[in-house]
Request: fold
Amino acid sequence: NAGVMQNPRHLVRRRGQEARLRCSPMKGHSHVYWYRQLPEEGLKFMVYLQKENIIDESGMPKERFSAEFPKEGPSILRIQQVVRGDSAAYFCASSPTGANSPLHFGNGTRLTVT
Amino acid sequence: AQSVTQPDIHITVSEGASLELRCNYSYGATPYLFWYVQSPGQGLQLLLKYFSGDTLVQGIKGFEAEFKRSQSSFNLRKPSVHWSDAAEYFCAVGAGNNDMRFGAGTRLTVKP
Reply:
């Protein structure tokens, strides 16, 4: 019973390139959350999705960032024209029912922008 | 909106000693409260949760936490710390919406 799978584990991009982070939720989970973690900071909520729908994107920057969770396949967090400030660990979490049910986290993708 | 404060950024305890990690929350109603642990290079793992009922909740790995409404606190405790408990601990609060807020974390170091 695989947990939440994120890939890649490490991603290096030059400024101006695009970064695509993938997340496959646990089997049976239809709720996906993306968080960003910076050193010495907690996790910052970015976006909450269900299959084919963005439910809450209040934590996501208005520009350059987008997320999707298609009917088939993993959830994708996409960052266009990356800047050094985007360097962080990005965690995906899933839950079976959403709204305050415990989250199951992936091991994260560490994005480094050079 | 709800918020979480973990006053201690870093705590060091000796192996075998007791542990208490502090967590204070801000929210107008009864919150949903969680403690997660993160080992280096890993995602977060749920230790325990409080939704309602008994204010003292037991979790995995010998951890427990007590919800104190009057103090807006949900402190995590363990009677005897093991070296493998060294990690970062996050308190989180949910409030009936989809935005679970996490504290900044407390890094635990265990001395031999």
